[in-house]
Amino acid sequence: MSAEHHLARARELYERSVFGDDHDALLDADRELDAVEAGLALARGRVVHARFLRDRVEDPAELPLFSRAAQLFQQLGDARGEGEALFWIGCFHQVVRHDDGAAVPALHRARTLAKAAGDPLTLSYVLRHLGISAHLAGRLDEARDLLAESTELREEIGHQAGVAANLVGLAHVAAARGRHDEVTALLERAERLAAEHGAAAVARQVGEARRALDYDRAS
Q: What is the number of H-type helices and E-type strands within the chain?
C-alpha cells in the first residue's frame, strides 16, 4: 500500500474515534502510521547511505534510521520490509564501519526473510554482500558462488546495472583464484552493461579494477 493510502486510512480511523466513540480504532491508526514511518525511515536511510558513498563521511543518523525501520516492520509483521531494513543494517556495518562481524548476522537474517517474502531484489543485494564478506575472509569459492547466485537473480529481474556491478566483483574473485583468463571477459561485459544502462559509477569501478588487477599481475 502507498503512503497516501496509509495516511488516508489513519485519518478515517481518527474520525471513527473522535466522532463515533470507536476508540479501538486508534490502535489501527497507529499501525497505519507505523507503516508510513517504517517506509520513510528506510527511504531516508538509503539516501543517507548514498551520501556516504559520495563523500565517505559517516552520518550518525544512518544506522538509527535503518534500525527504526527494522523494528517497525517487525512489529507490523512485514517480513519483506524487515528483510530489506536488515540488509541495510548489514550493509552499513560492512561498507561504512568495515565491521564484518556485525554485518554478517544481519545479512543472514535478511537472507532468510527475503527468501520467505519472495523478494529477489533484496536477496540479490544480500547475496552480493555475503559474497564480499566471503571474499574478504579468503573463502573464494564461496564468494564466487554467492556473487554468481546474486547475478542470476539480477538477470532474472532485469537489474542490469546490478549485474554489471557483480561482474566487477566476480572479476576480483577470479583474479584472487588465479583465473586471470576470466578477468578480461568479466570486465568487458561489465563495461558494456554499464554503458548500456547509464551506470557511470560501475564504469568507474571497471577502470579501477583494470588498474588494480593489472598491477597485481605485474607484481
A: 10, 0
